[in-house]
Amino acid sequence: MALDIVKIRNDFPILKQTVHNKPFVYFDNAATTQKPVQVIDRMDKVYRETNSNIHRGVHYLSDLTTRHFEEARETIRKFINARYDHEIIFTSGTTGGINLVAFSFGEKYISRGDEIIISAIEHHANIVPWQMLCERKGASLKVIPLNSDGELLLEEYDRLFSSNTRLVAITHVANSIGTINPVREMIQTAHQKNVPVLIDGTQAVQHGKVDVQDLDADFYVFSGHKMYGPTGTGVIYGKESILEELPPYQTGGEMVDQVTFEKTTFNRLPFKFEAGTPNYTGVIGLAAAVRYIEETGLDEIVAREKELLEYGSRRLSEIDGLHLFGQAENKISILSFILDDIHPFDAGMIIDKYGIAVRTGNHCAQPFMELLGIRGTIRASMVFYNTREEIDRLCEAIEKVKEMFN
Ligand code: PMP
C-alpha cells in the first residue's frame, strides 16, 4: 500500500518550518535524518518520567529503565535478524563502532605483514581506523577499485586476497553516490578464504531489509541518527563466536566482573564492550525509531524512495550542464552531481537561499572524489518523507544558480 505522505510529514515537526521565507526542503538525509515525534516523545518520556542509571540499581526506576534498555536491544536484534541479543552492542555511532572493532580485533589478530581489504568508495570512518591499525601493527591496506558507474570491480576484489588477508571492511551502501554493494556475495568470497568481514551499514539499514544471518556478516555496524533515531547512538552486530574471543576496547565500569588491584575479569557479552554509563535514553529512542520504520513499512519506504530516485534522476538529467555521478544499477535515493564551471560550495549556498538543504563537498570520501577527478559534488539525499514537488523546487533552484553564474 502507498504511504500516506500527509500523515508522514506530520510526524516530522521540523519539516513544517520555513527557511529564508521558503517552505523548508530537507535533502541532507545521508548526513542525518530528521526525527519523528514518536522518537522525540519517547526520549522526552525517559527524562520526564523514568530517568535512572541502568544495570546497577535495585530501585524501581533503575530497574524499569534497565528493562527498557534491554528491550531496545531485542528490538534491534529482531530488526536485523541477529541470532542473539548479546550479539548487539550499543555504541556512540558507526565511527565509535568501527574504532572499537579496529582496536579489539586488531589487538588480537593483526600483526606485521598482514593485510586488510577495503574499497575505494568508503567513508573516512571505514578507512582511517584501519589505516591507523596498519600503522600500529606494520600491516597494509588493499583497496578494491571501481568502474565509472561507481560499482566495485569484483574480479579485482577476488585478486586482492592473499594468505596474509585478515579482514575485509566494506560499506553496504556508499554515502557519496548511493551505490548498493553486493555484500552478500562479497562476504561469501571472503569466507571461502576464511577471512571475516565487517560491513558498514550506516546508509543501508534504513533503506532496505538487512538480515545479518542471511548476509553471514561477521560484524555489521550502523548509526542511529541516520535511521530517524537520536545522535550519539549506534550498533555493532558481531557474531557471538568472534565477539567471545575479542578483548575489550574501553575499560572501566559496567564491563567488569571482578576487580581487584591485582587483576580484573570481564563481564559477559554484550557488556564486555559497553564500558561506562551507556546512552540509555538514546538507545530507547533508537528502538522507537526502529518501531517507526517497521510500522511505516520498510517495503513501502523502499518503493517510495525508488520512485523518488527515478523521478529525481530523470529531472536532473534534463538540466544542461549538470553531471550526475553514480549510475549503479543498484543504488539508494542519492543524487550526487556537479554543475559545469560552478563550484559545488557556491551552488549549495545559493540553493540554500531557496530554503533547500543539500550537502556539498567530498562527503568524507576524499579518496573516491580523487578517483573521479573532482573535489566534491552537490548531494541531494532523499528519503520517504520527501516529495516530487520538492525535487521540482530543487530543479528550479539549480536553474537560478546557472542563471546567476552565466
Ligand atoms: N559510514 C558511512 C557510509 C556514512 O555515511 C557515515 C556518515 N556519513 C559514517 C560511516 C560515519 O557515521 P557517523 O558519523 O554517524 O559515525
What descriptors fit this protein?
binds 4'-deoxy-4'-aminopyridoxal-5'-phosphate; 2 domains; single chain; globular; Aspartate Aminotransferase, domain 2; 406 residues; seven-stranded mixed beta sheet; 41% helix; Aspartate Aminotransferase, domain 1; alpha/beta; 17 strands; 14 helices
Architecture overview:
It is built from 14 helices and 17 strands. It is α/β, with parallel strands linked by helices and 406 residues long. The protein folds into two domains: 5-30 and 297-400, Aspartate Aminotransferase, domain 1, CATH 3.90.1150; 40-294, Type I PLP-dependent aspartate aminotransferase-like (Major domain) (Aspartate Aminotransferase, domain 2, 3-Layer(aba) Sandwich), CATH 3.40.640.10. It is globular. The protein starts with a helix and ends with a helix. It binds 4'-deoxy-4'-aminopyridoxal-5'-phosphate. The site of 4'-deoxy-4'-aminopyridoxal-5'-phosphate has 13 residues, from α4. 4'-deoxy-4'-aminopyridoxal-5'-phosphate (PMP) is lined by residues 93-95, 123, 125-126, 171, 175, 200, 202-203, 223, 364.
The CATH superfamily of the largest domain is known as Type I PLP-dependent aspartate aminotransferase-like (Major domain)
Helix percentage: 40-55%
Strand content: 15-25%
From the coordinates shown, what is the CATH architecture of the largest domain? 3-Layer(aba) Sandwich
Quickly name the level 1 CATH class of the largest domain.
Answer: Alpha Beta
What small-molecule ligands were found? 4'-deoxy-4'-aminopyridoxal-5'-phosphate
Number of domains: 2
Give the biggest beta sheet: 7 strands, mixed
What is the count of helical runs?
14
Q: Please mark out the parts with pLDDT under 50 across 5 or more consecutive residues, or reply none.
A: none
End-to-end separation in angstroms reads 45 Å
Tell me the CATH topology of the largest domain: Aspartate Aminotransferase, domain 2
Number of strands: 17
Q: Which strand order do you get reading across the main beta sheet?
A: 4-10-9-8-7-5-6
| Average pLDDT rating | 96
Give the radius of gyration: 22 Å
Structural class: alpha/beta
Shape: globular
